[in-house]
Amino acid sequence: MPGYAKVIMLLQSMVIFFFSFWVLQEYTYNFYFQAYVNDIVQTNGSLIAVLVFVSSLGLALGLFKVLKSTHKQIGALANQPRAPTMSPIASSPRPAIDLHPMVAALKADMAHQGTIEPIPPIEIKDTPPPPRFQAQPDPQQVKTQVGTPSTVITGTMPVLKRVNPDQAQGQNSQR
Hints:
- By secondary structure, the chain is mostly helical.
- It has a domain at 3-81 and 100-110.
- It has 4 helices and 2 strands.
- It has a two-stranded antiparallel sheet.
- A hairpin with a 2-residue loop joins strand 1 (151-154) and strand 2.
- The protein is flat and about 105 Å long.
């Protein structure tokens, strides 16, 4: 399957999910939409149930037909005559086993394929690691706040009181 088809299917799935979420939210929070949907379900509930039953039955029959045709194709592959092999004729110590039709079909398919070409070796080139950069220390010192802000309660919400660093140094030196 091409990559763009996968992207389109992903986008379609996202759009369907978005619209489903939107309809669910609309049903949850819109009283008129709830009344409309409930009225439709009450009026046409039996028709909806029949449509769901018929579509489920059609889906099941379609899947059964595909399964049956696949089983016939596997049986036809398993019963195909085999080409003579170049192996020496010798009795094997193992008795012949009745294989599952799927395994027999795979073995027959593999026997009809030609020789397999070897995979060319992969060339690995060593590349030098990128140069590492070290940060130079900053000549300016970072200013830090010395004092801890005190909490002032106004109304019901606690609010932090603003403290300037110069003011905090003055308070610390007075102590």
